[in-house]
Specification:
With about 270 residues, this protein is α/β, with parallel strands linked by helices. It is about 25% helix and about 25% strand. Strands 1, 2, 3, 4, 5, 6, 7, 8, 9, 10 and 11 form an eleven-stranded mixed beta sheet that branches. The chain has one domain: Rossmann fold (3-Layer(aba) Sandwich). Helix 3 links the parallel strand 9 and strand 10. The protein is globular and about 50 Å long.
Length: about 270
C-alpha cells in the first residue's frame, strides 16, 4: 500500500458524476496497476474527517464506453490506496412502471448478460470461486437506505439489475425478455464485473441506481439525449446523498462479512 496517499472510502462516479465537488486538500494521483491504466487520474481528498478517493468510471468527459472500462485496474487502484468501502452511483433504465425516472434504487441482486469482459483477478496460478449470492454490502445498503429516506427521496429498497454488454440499448424483444422472464427491475451496462471484483478484493460495495428512463418495453425508445437530460437533474441529488453518507460510514465493518470474502473461496 502506498505510504504517501491513503483513502478509507472510494467513490466510483457513474454517468454525470465526474467530480463529487466535496473534497478539501484534493490531490490528483496516478496509480499504476498490473492490469494497466485505470479510467482516469484518481482524486484523493478529505471530507468530514474522512479520506476519500474518487475515480470517474467512464473517465472525465465520458470518453470510455461501458464495454471498454478497465474494471480490474480501477478496483486494484482503489485497493492499493487502502479503500475498504466503495459507493458506486450508476445511471439505470427502468423495467417497472413503479421505478420512475428520477427515483433511486438500492440494488440487492444482479443478472449478468455481458460477454468478453475481464471478470476476475484469478486468471491462473490460483482458482477463486467467490460467493456473490448477496452481491452488495448489507451494512452499506442499510446506511444508504436510511439516509435516502431521511432526505425524502423516492427510494426503492430492493432492485434486481440486469447488466447488458452495451454500448447499444436493448431491442424491444430483449427488453421484454429481461422484464418478463428474468424479472429484472432495472437495466444498465456497468455493474459487472465491477461489483464481483470488489468482492474478490474484500471491499464493501454498494451501488446507488439513479433511474433515468423507461427501457423500450414501455414502447418509448431510449435516446442518449433524454437520458442525459434526466440524469443532469439528478446529479445534485446524488451528490447530496453521497455527502450525507461519507461522515457516517465507518471503516470498521461490524455488520458484514465483506472483509472475509476470500475465506474458503481460494483453492
Amino acid at each position: 500500500m502506498p505510504t504517501k496517499h491513503f483513502a478509507e472510502i472510494g467513490i466510483i462516479g457513474g454517468t454525470g458524476v465526474y467530480d463529487p465537488g466535496l473534497f478539501s486538500d484534493k490531490q490528483e494521483i496516478k496509480v499504476y496497476t498490473p492490469f494497466g491504466d485505470p479510467s482516469d487520474i484518481i482524486s484523493v481528498g478529505e471530507y468530514a474527517g474522512k479520506k476519500v478517493a474518487f475515480i470517474p468510471r467512464h473517465g472525465k468527459g465520458h470518453r470510455i464506453p461501458p464495454h471498454r472500462i478497465n474494471n480490474r485496474a480501477n478496483m486494484w487502484a482503489l485497493k492499493e490506496l487502502g479503500v475498504k468501502r466503495i459507493i458506486a452511483p450508476t445511471a439505470v433504465g427502468s423495467m417497472r412502471y413503479e421505478y420512475r425516472p428520477g427515483d433511486i434504487a438500492i440494488l440487492d441482486q444482479f443478472v449478468d448478460f455481458t460477454k468478453g469482459r475481464e471478470y476476475t483477478f484469478y486468471d491462473g496460478g490460483k482458482v477463486c470461486h467467490i460467493s456473490v449470492a448477496d452481491p452488495f454490502c448489507p451494512e452499506l445498503r442499510d446506511i444508504v437506505l436510511h439516509h435516502g429516506n431521511m432526505l425524502k427521496y423516492a427510494i426503492h429498497d430492493k432492485a434486481t439489475y440486469v447488466c447488458v454488454q452495451g454500448p447499444r440499448f436493448s431491442t424491444r424483444a430483449e427488453s421484454q425478455f429481461f422484464r418478463d422472464v428474468l424479472k429484472a427491475d432495472i437495466i444498465g451496462m456497468t455493474l459487472v464485473p465491477e461489483c464481483p471484483l470488489a468482492r474478490e478484493l474484500e471491499i464493501c460495495y454498494v451501488s446507488i441506481g439513479t433511474v433515468t428512463d423507461y427501457d423500450v418495453w414501455a414502447n418509448s425508445p431510449v435516446s442518449s439525449m433524454e437520458v442525459i437530460e434526466v440524469l443532469n437533474k439528478n446529479v445534485e441529488k446524488t451528490k447530496k446523498l453521497i455527502s450525507e453518507l461519507i461522515p457516517v460510514i465507518s471503516v470498521d465493518r461490524i455488520k458484514c462479512n465483506c472483509g472475509n470474502a476470500l475465506e474458503g473461496a481460494v483453492l
